Amino acid sequence: MVKKQIGLICLTAVMMGSILAGCSGNNGNTANGGNTSTSKDPAVATEEKLDKVTFSYFNAAAGKDVQTKDTKIGKIFEDQTGVNWKIEHLVGDENTKVGTFIASNDFPDVMVPGDSIDKIVDAGAFISLNDLIEEHGPNIKRVYEPYLNLMKDKDGNINFLPLSATVGEYIPGPNIEQGAYWIQRRVLKEAGYPTIKTYDQYLNLIRDYVAKHKDEGLTGYLALTAQDQFFAFTNPPMHLAGYPNDGGAMIDMQTFQATDYGDEDVTKRYLQELNKLNAEGIFDKSSFVDTKDQYIAKIASGKVLGFFDYKWQAGQGINSLREAALASGNDDLDYMALPIVFDEDIKDQYLDPPAFVSNRGVGITVSAKDPVRIIKFFDNLLTDENQVLSNWGIEGETYSINEEGRFHRTAEQITQTNEESFKQSFGFTYFEYSWPRYGNGSSLADGNSVGAGRQPEVAQMSYSEGDKKLLEAYKIESFSELFSAPDDRPWYPAWSISIEQGSPAQIFEQKKSDLQRKYFPQLVLAAPADFEKIWTEYYTAFNKLDVKSYEDAVTEGVANKIAIVKGTAK
Predict the structure, then answer these.
(1) What is the CB neighbour count within 10 angstroms for residue 96?
(2) Cα separation of 9 and 6, whole Å?
(3) Integer Cα distance of 100 and 314 in angstroms
């Protein structure tokens, strides 16, 4: 794939004079140039030897708790800095957990919140990082410099470090990392590998397969609605309408006006088709009561034919099933991602354009024992060598470098580094994402991809015989080629626009969520004859809410982000 220089970096030169005081003093390194360190040994310490210390770290995502020194990567980082992390993951509801932290005013040293991040910031739980970055963060300044104006709150404080700063030339992903409609390959195989583009075609394909395999205990269509993942059930209408993941709004490409689609025909059409599936016994009714773990287990079982979700959210189930399928020598149960839209004339926009998500990140809390030590650890992560370690691992063990300087993996290394148990013990699970990092699509100065999965050599080597057969059937070289290229959206993603807690727009979001949690299950599970009546009830209740306050807030946020990116902000 042709690399594309990320537009945001090119457009931010005018911002440099208004960022952190002294921020331009980065010894000539830029976000495009990478770290100039020549050390190739990841175990070489980057600062003076210090006594060992363990800090606490809370990640508001499900996962296995760990002390990072017990992983190979974590032990190397401890050797470099003396710092070990006791990582705790979310169990239960995020807002409840965060509310407990806030009520007690007792926080972990470091937190990576999800949707609750505004509550954390508003509670004053994160300390300002401005001075720490200035005094102890040369690599942080180098990586985040083009984005610093997007990172500041209204008082000019940087409260956390986002996870998506693109460094170097942008490299698109060869495989699907974001949202898609997923379908088992055996369904496509039996149908003769048809071209599937529309929602009706996709659902009819599932219907036909279920009808031919009635006695196999198959689930035609599954959905994720658990706790903080309910957006996986409410987001599909915008994708089906040809929009990327801008959250609760669709942004008009000409006017840049935001429209909440919760009461739009696209949502009604989406839900009515699921209602029909349910009446036919093809929709899994337990979707509305399953936990995320149960949802993942169902995907991994090989009995689910189709679902919509984001790869980063369903990946554990997809990857587990793929491992089992490849081990058996038959990957017909594995999934393929499809860019499904409502109608033939709609251009899909599932693939993310280069983007900077400014409302998610990792912050140091007011309870932190040693913020200076922590910010130095963060800064140490942001060398080329340590980003390679976090993403590729150790040369000669999890990857190699050829005579041309290109990073690559053998088939055995690819298999090993895709295994969940290995990723956990090695440390990839814990260090490849939820830290200050080179964002997805980043590249090194020598042209290698920071993320192993976006390296063309690795992508091609990782394809199984079944993958190759699919690619050949659809006349493509990588799975992302089925999807349309993303249009330029300088505000993207709109869901990263901060909505002030307690504002009319935020209150609308909460009331809308409560309303949809109440009515959407009814709309899907009702008898088809009752659908219109229930939709009218929902539509009426929806339009009693202050939707305009939300649309105005997002529209204003889009305009502000465009102005910052284009250098026209006042």
Answers:
(1) 11
(2) 6
(3) 28
pLDDT, position 569: 65
pLDDT of 138-170, one tens digit each? 999 999 998 988 899 888 999 999 998 999 999
Cα dihedral 72, 73, 75, 76, rounded to 10, equals 120
pLDDT at 570: 63
Round to the nearest angstrom and report the end-to-end CA distance of the chain. 37
Please, which residues have CB within 8 angstroms of residue 382's CB and are 6 or more apart in sequence? 35, 139, 140, 142, 143, 436, 437, 438
Contact call for residues 95 and 119 (beta carbons, < 8 A) = yes
Per cent of the chain over pLDDT 70 is: 91
C-beta separation of 437 from 389 below 8 A: no
Phi-psi region of 476 (alpha: psi -120 to 50; beta: other; left: phi over 0): beta
Task: Confirm if 40 and 405 have CB atoms less than 8 A apart.
Answer: no
Are 519 and 538 spatial neighbours (Cβ–Cβ below 8 Å)? yes
**In this structure, are strands 110-112 and 249-251 parallel, antiparallel, or unpaired?**
unpaired
Q: What angle do CA 347, 349, 352 make, to 5 degrees?
A: 155
What integer is the mean pLDDT of 223-240?
95
Tokens of 426: 């090695």
Q: Which residues pair with 180 in a beta bridge?
A: 309
Q: How far apart are CA 524 and CA 529, in angstroms?
A: 12
- Residues 541, 535 contacting (CB under 8 angstroms): no
Average pLDDT over residues 422-450: 95
Torsion, Cα 134 135 139 143, to 10 degrees, reads -10
Q: How would residue 23 be classed by pLDDT, with cut points 50, 70 and 90?
A: very low
Amino acid at 551: E
Q: Is the peptide bond before 493 cis (omega within 30 degrees of 0)?
A: yes
Write the single-letter amino acid at 218. Answer: L
Measured in degrees and rounded to the nearest 5, phi and psi for residue 85 equal -120, 130
Write the CA distances from 471 to 96, 310, 479, integer angstroms. 45, 21, 7
